[in-house]
Amino acid sequence: MQTYAATLADVLAAADRVRDLAHRTPVVTCATLDRLAGRRVYLKCENLQKTGSFKYRGATNAVRHLPDD
After folding, report:
1. Is the pLDDT of residue 68 over 80?
2. Dihedral sign, CA of 25, 31, 32, 33?
3. Which of 27, 45, 58, 60 is the most buried (most CB within 10 A)?
4. DSSP string, 18-66
């Protein structure tokens, strides 16, 4: 069994922290990538965030996770 850096509880807590600030962005597929990979590939369009950056969710989560002091 693999050990992961983040647990499901960590992911759900992070989602709660950014929910009111981050846009819900679409998930799309690409037939060319599917064919090249030999399986279905899903792409999360985080470039459609308010800032145009895929780092928005992670940065927002990190800041909101800091202690108040």
Report:
1. yes
2. positive
3. 60
4. HTTTSPP--EEE-HHHHHHHTS--EEE-GGGSTTS-TTHHHHHHHHHHS
- The tokens for 20 are 């009111």
CA quadruple 53, 14, 7, 68: dihedral, nearest 10: 120
Query: What is the pTM for the complete model shown?
Result: 0.60
> Exposed e or buried b for every residue in 38-49, given b needs 16+ CB within 10 A?
eeeeeeeebeeb
d(CA 29, CA 39): 11
CA-based nearest residue to 42, from 61, 22, 25: 25
Which of 65, 55, 49 shows the shortest CA–CA distance to 10? 65
